[in-house]
Amino acid sequence: MKKHIRALIAAPLISTVLVAGALVPQAAHADGTLAEYKWSSASGFVEYGLGGFWVESRTDNSKLVFQTDGNRVLYNDSGRALWHSQTHGRGASKISLQSDGNVVIYRADNVPLWASGVSRSVPSGTWDLVLLGTASAPTINERNLLTGGKDYWRIP
Question: Which residues form the signal peptide (predicted)?
Answer without folding.
Answer: 1-30
